[in-house]
Automatic annotation (TrEMBL), chain B:
Keywords: Membrane, Transmembrane, Transmembrane helix. The chain crosses the membrane at residues 12-37, 49-72, 109-136, 148-181, 201-221, 258-282, 324-343, 355-381, 387-407, 465-487. The keyword Transmembrane helix applies. This is Tripartite tricarboxylate transporter permease. The keyword Membrane applies. Pfam families: TctA.
Length: 325, 501
């Protein structure tokens, strides 16, 4: 018996030793085969386009090809779940928007995975602010005008929304300013823009990509941004905070890996991605065109960010009165 | 007028450069191919190809992507006519008379009429874009939710009028389609509706799953079950080209289809899909002998085909003149333009006249190419009919599965298609038609969205539905058409005329 248990122990020790050694080796030789980057939204959309640009540069930096795969469905939950369940070896990564890691877990009754336990952030890419806009010919010249009108005419103001983060932004603004607004559902920003430009909506929440055309055409006036600092694309537009309202609801694009991915691989990826986001002219251009501001974090910062955003959004979603479904 | 000519000259000088001709040809070829292949449509193709166009100059990439889109409208009718399978959702109507023509041995003629009708429509729609883009674009802004609601109600009445057989069954089919459209996440509350807890249903069913399941798979099951009445008639393929009589009959429908398509294409939402239905109903209503419809009337092919092609081109108007894409493909084009650093909107005309006019002119070039690509192919397509059905149907099944799976890579999509194949078979056995169901599905989404929008924007005021003259006219037209269908004598006539064999 003794020899058996001894040999078992030896085998065990060997296995453990090997696996740690192989993990260390894996990190040394990473990546030795193509990496899959999953985008949980439709191909050709904004997130997909940025993912492809970043992956292009990243594959050059890593000396390995990166296959970008669009896996849309369930507002990004399906593609995220694929990565959450993948082998944590650094060969399957997720390129996603804040709605999947801060909103979905708080809005889905039955999320397909545990965001904080099954996925670990690798790096951040950039943030996209929400902006409060009114038609050019509107009598509202400032956010204070909107608030004053809303206070005098409760329930008269109406804003469009097409995704949870827009709804939460509008509702949080209403709550902070203590005004009651009605909300109209739309399929997407384009439909909402049509009714906004047709003069049927007094105000709307827009992102930079959707607002740039009407602003340039002189049809839309921006009153506030929901970022902590002013947006570089519209430096003249004051933030909500500057105007005394604590509304910060911008959206951060980030890269995730399955939990359990070796730390050296996470660190390596974080370094390369951050260098690309700050250094690559092409990536910066593309981010700017789509209305995002390049933002980098260390892996630890990203992890802390994802955790704190989870509770912050949970609070905002609850206050906005959204039910889990 | 002179400025229009000068602009078109500028456009042609850009569209006719060697590179752009090549890109246009490439787009048209890809478009024809994906149009013929069921399942994979322009949305999937353009989104897959989008990243590869970033390296091409903006004009060239837009020329190619546009070519894919209107090229798909040419190709989509091919499978509809030959094997009753809509290659694209917009060719559903073509099935009715196109396939009937094929069964009568006129497959070649039907394909030629579809191509010629599309060509004429494409050429006219190009002029419409060039001459009226700016004023027409504004129409989309002036119409409010109540107008769209009324338009959709009219579209649903079209669906009922269009169907043959029992009136009650037609209404039920439309309603079933609307119910299927509600599957997914409620846009206001986020509640899950009819998803049965399946994550893949959270964003609803896609029209290609439904169209391929109910039309494609259902039809195959039906045919495999009874050897009689297979859509593929191996005997008597007949003359390949349309007769003088068929051409004469088609001229009017093509012009009216082009007009309807150009107008409906501008409207956001379902305009492109509504156009062929509208054209078919109009042709049948004004025909001196409506009894031929459903039995291979060339008008029922030429009109809708012209309409869907015209709409596929005029739907660029709101994108280019306002920066508001009216459908998912145009939204992708908007993405492509943004990436290229072009902000779509009224300023495109002044800031990027080369892009706008180059693209408009390329549509002429592209339509001519498509005619040249498609006419010689007719002989080849028709010879496909000689393939024994036992070999043909597994191939169609395979293409359907691959095409659908390649779009989202969700195995559930393929299961749902198979499931709807059974639904299609059951419906066919019970005497329900698929076309009204599909139109109900396609319009159901906007019906609900606009209904809610009218009430929310109007703060619960029901009179808002009749607050605009456009809405009133459209609703009255729908009511009149519905009553005419209900009126017994007409209904009796309708049942005689429209029963499909």
């Amino acid at each position: 018996m003794i020899p058996l248990s001894k040999s078992l122990a030896a085998v065990l020790a060997c296995v453990i030793g090997l696996s740690t050694a192989s993990a260390a080796m894996a990190a040394d030789t990473y990546p030795s085969r193509p990496v899959t980057m999953i985008v949980p939204f439709g191909a050709g959309g904004g997130t997909d386009v940025i993912a492809r640009t970043v992956s292009d540069e990243l594959s050059r930096a890593l000396g390995q090809s990166i296959v970008v795969e669009a896996r849309p469905g369930a507002n990004g939950a399906i593609g995220s779940a694929v990565v959450a369940r993948a082998v944590p070896d650094g060969y399957t990564l997720l390129f996603t928007a804040q709605s999947t890691y801060s909103l979905n877990p708080n809005l889905m009754k039955d999320p397909l995975f545990d965001q904080l336990k099954d996925l670990v952030p690798v790096a951040s890419i950039g943030r996209s602010p929400w902006l409060i806009a009114v038609p050019m010919e509107s009598e509202f010249k400032s956010l204070a005008d909107v608030v004053a009108y809303g206070k005098a005419n409760p329930g008269k103001l109406v804003f469009p929304f097409w995704q949870s983060s827009v709804l939460v932004t509008g509702e949080t603004f209403g709550r902070m300013a203590d005004i009651r607004m009605r909300k109209v559902p739309y399929k997407g920003q384009v439909e909402a823009n049509t009714d906004f430009l047709g003069g049927r909506l007094p105000l709307m929440v827009t992102d930079i990509a959707g607002g740039r055309a009407p602003v340039e055409a002189g049809k839309m006036r921006l009153l506030a941004s929901t970022t902590a600092k002013r947006s570089a694309a519209f430096p003249d537009v004051p933030t909500m905070r500057e105007q005394g309202l604590d509304v910060v609801t911008d959206s951060m694009l980030a890269v995730f890996a399955p939990a359990g991915t070796p730390q050296p691989i996470l660190d390596r990826l974080n370094q390369e991605v951050s260098r690309i986001v700050l250094g690559s002219e092409k990536v910066r251009d593309r981010l700017r065109q789509l209305g995002l501001e390049p933002t980098v974090m260390t892996q630890n910062e990203a992890d802390a960010f994802v955790r704190s955003e989870m509770t912050r959004w949970e609070e905002m979603i609850r206050r906005a009165g959204l039910q889990k479904e | 007028m002179t400025s229009l000519l000068a602009n078109l000259e500028l456009g042609l000088s850009i569209a006719l450069t060697f590179n752009n001709i090549l890109l246009c040809l490439l787009g048209c070829l890809i478009g024809t191919l994906i149009g013929v292949l069921p399942g994979i449509g322009p949305i999937a193709t353009i989104s897959i190809l989008l990243p590869f166009t970033f390296g091409i100059p903006p004009v060239g990439s837009m020329i190619m992507l546009a070519g894919i889109y209107y090229g798909a409208q040419y190709g989509g009718s091919t499978t509809a006519i030959l094997v009753r399978m809509p290659g694209e959702a917009s060719s559903i109507v073509t099935i009715i008379d196109g396939n009937a023509m094929a069964r009568n041995g006129r497959a070649g003629a039907a394909l030629a009429l579809a191509a010629l009708g599309s060509f004429v429509a494409g050429c006219v729609a190009t002029i419409v874009i060039g001459a009226f883009a700016e004023p027409l674009g504004r129409i989309a802004l002036y119409l409010g939710p109540e107008d769209y609601f009324a338009l959709i109600v009219l579209g649903l009445v079209f669906a009922i009028v269009l169907a043959g057989g029992s009136l009650l069954k037609a209404i039920l089919a439309v309603l079933f389609g609307i119910v299927l459209a509600t599957v997914g996440t409620d846009m206001e509350t986020g509640a899950q509706r009819l998803t049965f807890g399946l994550p893949s249903l959270l964003e609803g069913l896609s029209v290609s799953i439904l169209a391929m399941g109910i039309f494609g798979i259902g039809e195959i099951l039906h045919n495999v079950e009874n050897a009689e009445g297979r859509p593929v008639v191996q005997a008597a393929i007949g003359r390949l080209w349309p007769s003088r009589d068929e051409l004469r009959r088609s001229a009017g429908p093509v012009m009216r289809g082009t007009f309807l398509g150009s107008l409906l294409g501008i409207l956001p939402g379902s305009g492109t899909l509504l156009a062929p239905f509208a054209s078919y109903v109009v042709e049948k209503k004004i025909s001196r002998d409506p009894s031929r419809f459903g039995h291979g009337a060339p008008e029922g092919v030429a009109g809708p085909e012209a309409a869907n092609n015209a709409a596929a081109q005029t739907c660029f108007i709101p994108l280019l003149s306002l920066g508001l894409p009216p459908n998912a493909v145009m939204a992708l084009m908007l993405g492509a333009m943004t990436i290229q650093g072009i902000v779509p909107g009224p300023q495109v005309f002044t800031k990027h006249p080369d892009l706008f006019w180059g693209m408009v002119a390329s549509m002429w070039v592209g339509n001519a190419m498509l005619l040249v690509i498609n006419l010689p192919l007719i002989g080849l397509w028709v010879s496909l009919l000689k393939v024994p059905y036992r070999l043909l149907f597994p191939a169609i099944l395979l293409f359907c599965c691959i095409g659908l799976y390649s779009v989202n890579r969700l195995p559930e999509d393929v299961y749902f298609m198979a499931g709807f194949g059974l639904v299609g078979l059951a419906l066919a056995k019970l005497g329900f038609e698929a076309a009204p169901l599909l139109l109900g599905f396609v319009l159901g989404d906007s019906l609900e969205a606009n209904f809610r929008r009218v009430l929310i924007l109007g703060d619960g005021d029901w009179t808002k539905f009749v607050s605009s003259p456009v809405a009133v006219v459209l609703l009255l037209a729908a009511l009149a058409m519905f009553c005419a269908t209900l009126f017994p004598r007409v209904r009796k006539g309708r049942e005689e005329v429209l029963v499909e064999q």
